[in-house]
Design a protein that fits this description.
72 residues, Trypsin Inhibitor V, Chain A, 3-stranded mixed sheet
Length: 72
Amino acid sequence: MFSLAWMANQQTSFPELVGRNTQEAALYITAQGLTPVFVRPDQPVTLDYRTDRVRIVTDPSGNHVIQAPTVG
């Protein structure tokens, strides 16, 4: 179970990464102590919520971030 106190003190969305290269985004997320997970548009994902995971939606080629990555 995640803690609301944790969420209040941590960034949960990363809009500054939209348009960036996926490698840059992964380095940025990893530096925050989080685990980047790359997904493509319309790719099925699990519905579990994990406070250590950031999903990064990429363009179909997997080269650029197209949505603000979010914790979950």
